[in-house]
Amino acid sequence: MELRIDRQALVPVVQQIVDALAGWIRQSAVEPGTRLPSIRQLARDNLLSQSSVIEAYERMVAQGVLASRHGSGFFVAGPLVATYRCGDQSGPVGADANSVWLGDSPLGKLPLGRGGMPESWRESDDLSYAIRQVSRTDMAGLFNYSTSYGLPALRQQILKRLQQINITLDENQVLTTAGATHGLDLIVRALLKPGDCVVVESPGYSNLFDLLRLHGVRMLEVPRTPRGPDIEVLEALLSANNPRALFINSLFHNPTGSSLAPAVAQRILELAKRHELIVIEDDVYADFQSSVGTRLAAMDAGESVVYVGSFSKTLSSSLRVGYVVASAAIIARLAEVKMITSLGASRFCESVLSSLLANGAYRKLVQRQRQRLKRDMAATLLVLEDADWEVFGKPAGGLYIWARPRAHEPAQVRALAHEFGIVLSSRTAFTPGGEASDWLRINVTYASDPRAQAFFRACGLPDRLRPF
């Protein structure tokens, strides 16, 4: 069995083995009970170490893809299963054709609309080292709660990173959280109450919409443009409704990939001051930005912006570490709510991240991710242009492109996606009211797959010109 391992690729060899074996099982429709090549044979045929093959096999056993029989080797365990996200809510495969996948698809479906990076893009070596180091040297990190504001060493590292993007503040203005979603939840709990009115971008982040609905907060929609929220509509909403807050995704907006223009950012701050509006700036894609970029928190001379960041998008979705930046008074209130609702975040996760930031490993990781994303973004935009897709602006980086084919109706597009083994983003997930849209969120980390390339081209052709 030839696995075609690329030793120059950024993807770890073990993950390449897993991906290749899963692809073989899928494409060859291998029956459950089929025996795989022995560890020694597979290693010899592909010039691999036996330890790499063992780790790949064991990983697939843990995933339920393979079964191990003592003395007999490894066998295909049974039909492959996967999970998806419909409107960014997890559930079983097959329940909704509009779903957005949570993880890599062992069923063979390509999750083109997924909300994060594939596992094959993740790098485990530095993370594993940091975990072992904390386990050996920081017993308190293994067993104790963190402080209400978060691990002091991590907060110092966060302050240093924020200074690089022109956000300067004191230590008592930073609070660590168990990811950005936890931070948003604390903000809603602490600063809003049921019946309050807020402004959200449309299209926008579906989990935020669900969170606000959960807390009984009413939402007003402001259209997102390639330069940020529509300022004229925003000003009218503020004048007519006196909302309490504005939630905004500044850089590499989810789902459009657009970024805030400086002039728009300045107008937002002027309106916020005039209408006493709290601005919650969600910047979870900050580390995908190679330049400083335009951020409200960096421009705010007062204290109207609450800034939310996270390391989950770049490092690990399982290592739940995020942070909130705001005035000292707001941070104190958030810390109080944090302790009441969760007794704090994970000191272990915070210690691991602090180690990665301190030794420079995290900085090098995001540099590699930026280069790879920049290349895939440019390539995907070129393919979409050649296939005559309409693109919502041209993102300068990040994960997402918001686009739609000109030649086909939504139902035809989804039928084509099914033919090519592709799962698209939900039509209703990205608007607060659940209205259907013919725009698609395209995750560029999946767009270089041959199935995606063929799908893009097919969607650009009228039915009479399609080769099948």
From TrEMBL:
Gene3D superfamilies: Aspartate Aminotransferase, domain 1 (3.90.1150.10), Type I PLP-dependent aspartate aminotransferase-like (Major domain) (3.40.640.10), Winged helix-like DNA-binding domain superfamily/Winged helix DNA-binding domain (1.10.10.10)
Positions of the HTH gntR-type domain: 11-79
SMART domains according to UniProt: HTH_GNTR
One matching Pfam family: GntR
GO MF annotations, alphabetized: DNA binding; DNA-binding transcription factor activity; pyridoxal phosphate binding
PROSITE patterns cross-referenced by the UniProt entry: HTH_GNTR (PS50949)
This protein's UniProt keywords: DNA-binding, Pyridoxal phosphate, Transcription, Transcription regulation
Domain of life of the native organism: Bacteria
Family, similarity comment: In the C-terminal section; belongs to the class-I pyridoxal-phosphate-dependent aminotransferase family.
Record's protein name: GntR family transcriptional regulator
Organism: Pseudomonas brassicacearum
